[in-house]
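> example.struct
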């Protein structure tokens, strides 16, 4: 099969190439998927660049997320899954078989049914961002009736956090940096969209949240946004942070103590497996209910996988997909 791969760390244009490799066969408990679209996330280019290096066993095919059709199953897997449309999560975690290829193999619980009503593009966009959003929202219990602030509502994690929080019965505020992103966040269903660059952002959020304040924050940039977060949260609120900035933030300890704030940091590689499986089930149910929607998509052919990763690294709005076929 044809696959994008690398065997050393470095810039995409220098180390990521397209080559022929043996098509993988599913082992016990695994399924093989013919990939129709491969989704890229920041974790993919960071691993490839060496910023967050992970062991390479010979070669690494990148990308955790994707969507396609199961065409072979290993021992212990229901043969009836052959021909099933699926979305794929965490394909390259501890495995050389990422989704930037014509085929991948994953444990069967990492290939989730993709309803006919959901597009391949949506399926390939889920994985890392949607599961991360789920963990940030629900790791500490139900959020029904609570007020949730999602920082960066036009990003992939922010988008799926808005949609999952609304499905769970929360009131959702989100922050964005401009009109185009505000439109995306509003389409995802946020009750209030605030441009955090505007001088009245804190007052706008406080007015919506009421005297109680924000209960829960899904945070993409803790250092940049903590002052705003502390200004709008209630006493005892939780802040779940899923991304690291280039420089570690300085924590205003006294202000955090005064707020009795609880911080949770989320990195999917260390989340308990049972939590990942539950997230996948909840997301599949949300898909079936039509509660999850696509972001704008930019497509690259497999031969341009390096350019696709560069686009994500440069901050492309929406989702960037690699199409193997």
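> example.seq
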């Amino acid at each position: 099969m044809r696959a994008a791969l690398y065997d050393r760390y470095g810039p995409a244009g220098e180390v990521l190439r397209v080559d022929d490799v043996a098509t993988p066969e599913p082992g016990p408990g695994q399924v093989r998927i013919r990939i129709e679209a491969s989704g890229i996330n920041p974790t993919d280019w960071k691993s490839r660049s060496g910023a967050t290096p992970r062991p390479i066993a010979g070669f690494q095919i990148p990308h955790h997320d994707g969507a396609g059709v199961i065409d072979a199953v290993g021992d212990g897997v229901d043969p009836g899954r052959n021909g099933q449309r699926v979305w794929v999560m965490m394909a390259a975690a501890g495995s050389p078989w990422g989704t930037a290829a014509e085929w991948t193999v994953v444990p069967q619980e990492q290939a989730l049914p993709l309803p006919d009503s959901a597009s391949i593009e949506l399926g390939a966009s889920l994985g890392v961002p949607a599961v991360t959003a789920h963990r940030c929202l629900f790791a500490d219990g139900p959020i029904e009736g609570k007020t949730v602030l999602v920082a960066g509502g036009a990003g992939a994690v922010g988008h799926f956090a808005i949609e999952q929080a609304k499905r769970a019965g929360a009131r959702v505020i989100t922050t964005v940096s401009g009109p185009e992103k505000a439109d995306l966040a509003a389409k995802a269903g946020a009750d209030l969209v605030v441009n955090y660059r505007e001088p009245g952002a804190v007052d706008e959020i406080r007015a919506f949240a009421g005297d109680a304040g924000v209960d829960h924050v899904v945070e993409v940039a803790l250092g940049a946004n903590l002052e705003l977060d502390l200004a709008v949260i209630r006493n005892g609120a939780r802040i779940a942070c899923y991304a690291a900035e280039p420089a570690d933030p300085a924590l205003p300890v006294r202000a955090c103590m005064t707020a009795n704030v609880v911080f949770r940091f989320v990195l999917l590689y260390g989340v308990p497996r049972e939590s990942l499986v539950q997230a996948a089930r909840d997301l599949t149910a949300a898909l079936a209910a039509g509660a999850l929607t696509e972001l704008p998509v930019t497509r690259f052919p497999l031969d341009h996988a390096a350019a696709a990763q560069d686009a994500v690294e440069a901050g492309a709005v929406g989702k960037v997909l690699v199409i193997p076929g």
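> remarks
The CA atoms of residues 70 and 83 lie 5 Å apart.
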